[in-house]
């Protein structure tokens, strides 16, 4: 079988398209690259959806924590503390068994026990908590002069938030938020180890990498391929977020623009 034919057969297998049966023996390098790459579709899905939805919840949580009203501040503080204070891996297991018990009582919640929705909810809440703390720190760092200038121009309420506070918060938080986005995409590999099942062997990238490692008893081919895909994904995230960072800081002199710095995180 040619490599082009292999890509046609297995390129979208993780979505249920193409060949149903996995190869059993005589694995080629092309098959491993193709199937692991096919599984990356799910990792990208988890990361993108969690980022897109978590961003708005994080903004709400940050504003709540910065509020002087304790009925808004306390729930935000406890939400951040709960999801930052417990391991993501434990959150996956707790959520799965909670959704499972919910499904037994109310069958309409069946979809929550599937990885595509249940695991996504966990990632969404987790990244919202971490990002909310980042945004809260940025809110506290907004120069008072910016707010005073907005007041001098007669801005108040929603207008001041939309034109001054929110853009400044994003500009200050963006480098740290970029690191959170990178970590979130890497954290999608934990879905494989969670209790959420892969439906009809349509798993993520780590699912296929583990399959090849188990069948060949050689982890030194599939896992480096998996790492290669995540390195490419990280470069894409850095590039896209870097462009957004330049856009957010386009009005500043070059000496004052926020630099994108990335540091190795040995622990969450």
Describe this structure in words.
The protein has ten helices and no strands. The mean pLDDT is 90. The chain is an all-alpha fold and 268 residues long. Helix 1 packs across helix 2 (29-66), helix 4 packs across helix 5 (115-141) and helix 9 (205-216) packs antiparallel against helix 10. The longest helix is centred in the first third of the chain and has 38 residues, at 29-66. It has helices at 3-10, 29-66, 70-85, 88-105, 115-141, 144-152, 158-187, 190-193, 205-216, 222-248. The two termini are 43 Å apart.
Features of the shown structure:
71% helix, 10 helices, mainly alpha, 0% strand
Secondary structure: number of strands = 0
**Coarse morphology:** globular
Number of distinct helices: 10
Rg, Å, rounded? 22 Å
Largest sheet: none
Measure the end-to-end span: 43 Å
Can you give me a brief rundown of this structure?
With 268 residues, the chain is mostly helical. It has 10 helices and no strands. The chain starts with a helix and ends in a 20-residue tail after the last helix.
């Amino acid at each position: 079988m040619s490599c082009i034919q292999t890509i046609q057969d297995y390129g979208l297998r993780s979505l249920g398209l193409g060949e149903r049966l996995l190869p059993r023996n005589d694995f080629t390098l092309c098959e491993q690259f193709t199937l692991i790459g096919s599984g990356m579709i799910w990792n990208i899905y988890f990361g993108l959806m969690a980022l897109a939805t978590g961003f708005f919840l994080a903004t709400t949580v940050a504003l709540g924590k910065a509020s002087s009203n304790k009925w808004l501040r306390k729930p935000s503080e406890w939400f951040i503390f709960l999801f930052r204070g417990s391991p993501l891996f434990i959150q996956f297991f707790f959520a799965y068994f909670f959704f499972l018990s919910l499904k037994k009582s109310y069958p309409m919640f069946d979809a929550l026990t599937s990885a595509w929705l249940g695991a996504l909810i966990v990632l969404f809440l987790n990244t919202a908590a971490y990002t909310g703390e980042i945004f809260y720190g940025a809110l506290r760092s907004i120069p008072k002069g910016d707010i005073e200038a907005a007041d001098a121009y007669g801005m108040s309420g929603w207008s001041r938030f939309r034109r001054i506070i929110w853009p400044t918060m994003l500009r200050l938080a963006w480098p740290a938020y970029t690191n959170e986005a990178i970590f979130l995409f890497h954290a999608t590999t934990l879905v494989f180890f969670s209790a959420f099942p892969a439906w009809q062997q349509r798993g993520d990238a780590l699912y296929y990498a583990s399959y090849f490692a188990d069948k060949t008893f050689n982890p030194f081919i599939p896992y480096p391929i998996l790492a290669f895909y995540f390195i490419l994904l990280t470069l894409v995230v850095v590039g896209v977020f870097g462009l957004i960072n330049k856009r957010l800081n386009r009005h500043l002199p070059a000496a004052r623009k926020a630099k994108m710095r990335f540091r190795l995180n040995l622990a969450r």
